[in-house]
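Reviewers of the previous submission asked for a worked example of the structure-prediction workflow described in the proposal, so we include one complete record here. The input consisted solely of the amino acid sequence. No template or homolog information was supplied to the procedure at any stage.
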Amino acid sequence: MKLITLLKNNNSRINNNKGMTLIEIIIVVAIIAGISTTLITNVLGQSAKAQVSQTKIKMAAIASALDLYSVDCGEYPESLDDLVTAPSSCNSWGPEPYLDPKKKNLFVDAFKGDLVYERDGGDYELLSLGKDRREGGDGSDADIFHE
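From that input alone, the workflow returned the following structure tokens.
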């Protein structure tokens, strides 16, 4: 009798192991989705910060080349292309280009947009339109000015 009772108890334990319920699976998926969303948001935010920093570094290098050009030629260039090819308006250009013409995307920011250069008399403005490639904006969409 004890043996039959023992066997019945063991069989009932085996039959009750059905695995995870649908509710448990949904809860696990929701937790994984929440963690993934948090991680992706943080990674994308850091990526935008890195692109802003890369753009500022590139703009600083171009600004240094613009200043060297100004010392040699007495004024800032008409366009950024004058930093890699000698313009007819400057007799004391170079002898080497102010920036390496072999580099790809020389005047493109980290957001894949063209840098904006405007000469204003004896000064200039150098900027990136940011991630949205439009004037103004907030965060990574904000314009980046070289100071």
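Residues 22-73 form the longest helix (52 residues). We consider this example representative of the routine output the project will generate in years two and three.
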